[in-house]
Amino acid sequence: MNPFQKILVSIDSDLVATPIVDLARQVALAFGAQVELIHVFESSGYHGPEVLELADDQDPKLEHWRTARAMMGLLKNLAASGIRVRARLTLGVVEEEVSRLAREEGFDLIILGSHSRKGLDRLVQSSVAAALIRMASCPVLVLPHMVDVIPD
After folding, report:
1. What's the domain count of the chain?
2. Which CATH number covers residue 33?
3. 86-96 burial by CB neighbour count: b if 16+ within 10 A, else e?
4. 3-state DSSP assignment of residue 37
5. How far apart are CA 137 and CA 144, in angstroms?
6. Domain presence at residue 152
7. Contact by Cβ (8 Å): 5, 109
8. Which of 85, 98, 100, 109 could form a disulfide with 78 if both were Cys (CB 3.0 to 4.6 A apart)?
9. Structural domain span for residue 85
10. Is 0.85 topped by the overall pTM?
11. C-alpha angle 30/35/38, rounded to 5°?
């Protein structure tokens, strides 16, 4: 039996996504799994739909959204490898939305990156990865010590 058929990949716009997507590609190809990318906006400054489904032939009106553009690039990158992939943007608390989606839609694995926070910064800002490990209904694969970046 194939242990991983549906993989949920949480994309944080503050992290370099390439290693996370590369890991998701390797797992998906090894197990013949489909992949769904998700980015959760935690900002009250987000003024879009509650959930926005993305496809590789997406409406050009979304091109002005930096995050939508980045997610489309990741989606096309995985699709080029022959992987069945979807993506969505949503609003909420990351660990709550990702764990809820994984449970409700029957995902077998969650993949995400971890910040390299230390000291007081780590104490002040909670760890999404640690919370997901506690809350998730499926295994969580964390790629540790990702480099923090400010996207273009």
Report:
1. 1
2. 3.40.50.620
3. bbbbbbeebbe
4. strand
5. 21
6. no
7. no
8. 85
9. 6-143
10. no
11. 145
